[in-house]
Amino acid sequence: MNNLIIRMKEVEDTQKFAEYIGKHIENDVFIALTGELGAGKTAFVQGLAKGMGIDGPITSPTFTIMNYYDSKIPLKHFDFYRLETEEDLYQIGWEEYGSDGVVVVEWADMFPRLLPPESIYITIEKEEGNARKFHISWNDNAPQKIIKEITDYAACH
Ligand SMILES: Nc1ncnc2c1ncn2[C@@H]1O[C@H](COP(=O)(O)OP(=O)(O)OP(=O)(O)O)[C@@H](O)[C@H]1O
Ligand SMILES: [Mg+2]
Question: Which ligand gives the minimal distance to the CA of 34?
Fold first, then answer.
């Protein structure tokens, strides 16, 4: 596993970082988000969607489990929080939905077995006030282009 840490001071930093990733996405990407309630997972997805040119409100899929946004590369925003078992996810069509496009999952650590080898893992650690520490990790199966963008971003933030 490779990893790096990026520190955010405010919600705007989180959204700018996510927007930067969204702007540079050209292929399928799977982002597995972890972090306690209110860490900023949905805030991250809002920035990501903005960067991908998706406008309109990005709301939490806590109850719908998945929100789909049509775009040049479609965005599938999952939230595993309310799922009891992996079976619940297969019921709503994980296998058809889960594979291509940009897939972002909140509470991804609930079902680690469902995460593909190319996953980019982002764990958001809450710190004092609005500060957040982003722990980002991936292995060699992750899409190299976007990893390079993330590493470049980290180098100057
Ligand atoms: N640096 C930061 N990054 C992200 N969010 C921040 C930051 N500082 C403050 N916040 C605030 O924390 C809250 C994060 O809420 P958000 O819904 O994104 O959390 P979440 O991780 O998705 O929670 P949940 O587990 O309930 O889905 C927002 O109100 C946001 O404005
Ligand atoms: Mg959320």
Answer: 1
pTM for the full model?
A: 0.97
13-46 pLDDT, tens digit per residue, is 999 999 999 999 999 999 999 999 999 999 999 9
> Do 137 and 109 touch, CB atoms closer than 8 A?
no
How far apart CA 60 and CA 72 sit, in angstroms, is 22
Burial class (CB in 10 A: 0-12, 13-18, 19+), 117: exposed
Q: Is 106 in the pocket of ligand 1 (CB under 6 A)?
A: yes
Q: What pLDDT, in 10s, does the model give residues 68-122? A: 999 999 999 999 999 999 999 999 889 887 778 999 999 999 999 999 999 999 9
Probe residue for ligand 1, chosen from 34, 130, 133 as the CB with the greatest number of ligand atoms within 8 Å: 130
What residue's CA is closest to ligand 1, atom 23?
A: 38
Residue nearest to ligand 1 atom 16, measured at CA: 40
